[in-house]
């Protein structure tokens, strides 16, 4: 299981996922390269709570990734590159979507040029058969209980990983506003 590089800068995350050369190659194709370099060495990966593996924020040009562990570094880097392609697209057009412009960037960075990744990580697949209230962000173990209690800040004894609350969707999460630390099961 691999934890997403949340809190690292975009440049650090690329290095962490072994795709820094891909990222550096794309910069040569851009205008305002200094500003771009400045952005990717300062902007940190945030937490995506949309029930998706990742998302891109237009205003701040931030990349958000799921707090949930991924099955492999490949799975994590393909989502990171999907969102990075949105950043490149946005940088050149001031807008981004899944049109041919984004697809071109997606191909350039070597990620699947589709809006959603059709392969669901097995760990997420497993969540569908359960009603988890929490998950270990290191080993992916789910915790089930008859009644929900706040798992923010807990540690998984077996592996030492950080545990977070799991909600099936945002609507349910909104009923527990004091649960500061949580993730959603992807749709
Ligand atoms: Zn996208
Ligand atoms: Zn664990």
Tags for this model:
single chain, 187 residues, alpha/beta, Zincin-like, 4-stranded mixed sheet, elongated, binds zinc ion
Description:
This protein is 36% helix and 13% strand. The protein is α/β, with parallel strands linked by helices and 187 residues long. The protein has two domains: 10-109, Zincin-like (2-Layer Sandwich); 122-184, no CATH class. The strands form two sheets. It has a four-stranded mixed beta sheet. α4 crosses α5. The longest helix has 21 residues, at 73-93. One zinc ion (ZN) binds next to loops.
What does this entry show, briefly?
With 187 residues, the chain is an alpha/beta fold. The protein has helices at residues 10-16, 20-27, 33-42, 73-93, 100-109, 122-128, 170-173, and strands spanning 46-48, 54-57, 62-66, 134-136, 142-143, 163-167, 182-184. The structure holds zinc ion (2 copies).
Task: Indicate the CATH class of the largest domain.
Answer: Alpha Beta
N- to C-terminal distance: 20 Å
The Cα radius of gyration reads 17 Å
Instruction: State the major sheet.
Output: 4 strands, mixed
CATH architectural category of the largest domain: 2-Layer Sandwich
- CATH topology title of the largest domain: Zincin-like
Strand content: 5-15%
The helix/strand order is: HHHEEEHHHEEEHE
Mean pLDDT: 92
